[in-house]
Amino acid sequence: MTAKTREYKEISRSQADEAIELLPDERNILLWKGLIKGPQESPYEGHIFELGIKVPDSYPLAPPAVHFVTKIFHPNVHFKTGEICLDILKTSWSPAWTLQAVCRAVLALLSAPAPDSPLNCDAGNLLRAQDMRGYSSMARMYATRLAAMPQGSSIVEQPHPSSLNTFKEDH
After folding, report:
1. Closest by CA position to 51, among listed 23, 9, 15
2. Residue 91: enclosing H or E segment and its boundaries?
3. Domain spans in the chain, listed from the N-terminal domain onward
4. What is the pLDDT of residues 22-35, one digit of tens each?
5. What are the residues whose beta carbons fall under 8 Å from the beta carbon of 124, sequence distance 6 or more?
6. Which residue positions are annotated as catalytic (predicted)?
7. DSSP assignment, residue 84?
8. Residue 123 — φ and ψ, nearest 5°?
9. Are 94 and 62 spatial neighbours (Cβ–Cβ below 8 Å)?
10. Edge-to-edge strands of the sheet including 20-24?
């Protein structure tokens, strides 16, 4: 059994994390959609963000490519491409990391942004200037406009009028 198949079965058995839902593409086990619930006491609280996850053939020896499909205002996420600046997705990757653990790390990044190495300079500058009010206001505004609370998701408590962006294979 390959590592990818084993992880698929493991995730299918245990969707225990109420803030994360992982959904494999029906036609390609190497493509996944991650839905993450904005962390409590963060500007993202009350919203769901979609991640595109592409698992390489060499997984788990190489990290998956993960990006935000939902646009998000965050210093460590490129606003246009959704690229995430997170060390475990690059230099600190370990085969011990699972897709679920990667999503948990992304959630932790939403709670504790690192403004010193920003992909979104506007967000990084607000945090470096210690303008938490301005940063939170911008992040909440974008989350309200662009993030979703899709019906039928196991991580949703209440429906939201927005709809999810479509999952893209090409990123």
Report:
1. 23
2. none
3. 3-146
4. 999 999 999 999 99
5. 75, 115, 116, 118
6. 85
7. B
8. -65, -45
9. no
10. 20-24, 31-37, 48-54, 65-68
Query: Taking the CB of residue 109, how many other CB atoms lie within 10 A of it?
Result: 19
Top CATH class, 3-146: alpha beta
Cβ within 8 Å of residue 155, ≥6 positions away:
18, 19, 20, 21, 35, 36, 37, 48
How many other CB atoms are there within 10 angstroms of residue 126's CB atom?
A: 23
Tell me which residue has tokens 């198949």. 5
From the candidates 20, 69, 72, 85, which is the catalytic residue? 85
Active site residue 121: no
Q: Is the pLDDT of residue 171 over 50?
A: no
Cis, peptide link before residue 24, omega less than 30° from 0 = no
> Could you give the CA distance from residue 71 to residue 90 in angstroms, rounded to a whole number?
21
Q: Is 3 exposed, middle or buried (0-12, 13-18, 19+ CB in 10 A)?
A: middle
**Helix axes of 3-13 and 99-111: crossing angle, nearest 10 degrees:** 70
Q: Which residue, chain included where needed, has tokens 């084993």?
A: 6
Mean pLDDT of 11-17: 61
